[in-house]
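pasting for ref
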Amino acid sequence: MTEPLLRLRADAYYVPVADGVWIRTTDGSFRLRGRTVATWVERLAPLLDRGVAPDRLLASLPTEQAGFVRTLLSALERHGVVRREDPEAAPIPVDVERAFPQQVEFLRHLVADPGAAMTAVRACPVSVAGPVERAAPLAAILLESGFGDVSLLDAEPTAELSNLPEALGVPARVRRATRDVGAHVLGVFADGEDATALRVAETALAEGRGSWLGLTRGQAMLLKAQIPGSDAACIRCAWRRLVHAATALPCAPGLGPVPVSIAGAVLVHDLFRHVSGAVGAGRPPESEGVVVDLTRLSIWRQPVDVDPTCDLLGTAGHVGVTAPAHDEASGSAPTSDPADWGGVLAERLLSASCFGPVAACSPEDLPQLPLASARLRVNRPGRVEPAASVADVLVVGENMPDVRREAGLLSLEAVLGVARHGASVGAGRDKSEALARAIRSWAQDVELTGWADPDPAEEPEAAAAEADVRRLRELTESEDLSVRLERHPAGLWRARVGATAPVVDVAARPAIEAALLLAVARRTPPAEGEPATPLSPAVSTYSADTEALLHTLNLHCSPLAPPPSAADIVTAVEVGVATPAFGGGATAAVSEHRGAER
């Protein structure tokens, strides 16, 4: 048997850096470190571009170099920059390669058997929905991309479309669909036709077929795939979660050739990747949504979170995410330890701003002294259609990194809290932080009796918070920030500044810090005519015996699955009352109420 070849991806390029080499593909970038790495990558690149047998290459090198090159090739293969290709794989027919050179070259650099992948594309039946003025251009894009079995659901093929296979020089079936609807359905729908589009998607789902559809609202177009049995968000999920300002703009009558062509190019390319298996190291097409701003013809491709309120969630076709992302006993999310974890989280969520928890988070025109502040727009589940904007929360803190970190966690908690039936949700870098935030949220939303001044034995805890008081007094140049601190028998702390509403937390320092931040923030009135915005303080989570608090407060804790956009760096939990009776007996009582702010 002939040895497999190692071949370099066509979209890979490298740049030598001080301590190694930086390599990038369309799937992402990474760095390999070492004094001679860049030199060896430069030597190997021409060989890998043509395809080289690794054993033959290593045998031609001195022993001391062969070990290094073997390690380097393994690293490149692990990162998806090179792949193994079977030289005995079935060849691609000459007429197919001549008709579709770009598609063939794309497959050669992404799949091990490009001949089999192209055969799968040629044999895959695809049906196109919609009137002929949209269906015919979409069908033409399918044929020009290599698909060899195309049918129209709602119209007869035009003469130009029927003659296209002959012009391409390869045989293909082009017909009006009858009973033999394709394995996939493709279509683009104008503003006001979303109900029709969703029916097409649900019918295809029920029949076990994939859907590749474009839906339009205003001047925004959503392009999304839906695969039966996938745990990715369905088309209805993406439609409900979509937030984009262009959805509020007046729509043009119908859809012109340019929007249809753009939609067809994106949808057909994603369908090609799915059928051929040429996904690479990136996300599968059905896990992403593409938003096209038709006023500027700009395109955003972003991951789509499953809508927990989706009508199809849990059905045979729409699996959804039902299991927690991390083992409850693990105690933390499986991630590295970046210096700016909060910044990483914020960037992750902002990169999915059309569908994810954070629709927007920016300082806008807010004053940044004496406190840093940002307007957070949380994309909460529960809508049934796209939105141009969503309600906002004002996050305040001593610096912008703290504000961005709090905004990210707050948005995740707001999304995860939907349909939790009264339970309080916490998210954090690890289980300890998530549990502390969940208990804090629960305690802020109930009324506990039995608060009292701290005992002398607890004075060190209160004294440690004096540094925060002094720091914020200096920051705001105010001497009237008097803080009253109280402790609950269960172990919670409560702080208030003047006559403002109290803030409850699991430790004294974050309670005092939050109360001070809110007091300072409320001194800056909203602009004239601007409604008051809910405030959320960005405070640190200090260590506390959260497990003991759970027991004392008679709360239970369960793990939650964070949205995919943050599942690998965030741990989330929910807490709720285990039984109707409060575990403190006569020392405390609970009565439910909901607060407007933290």
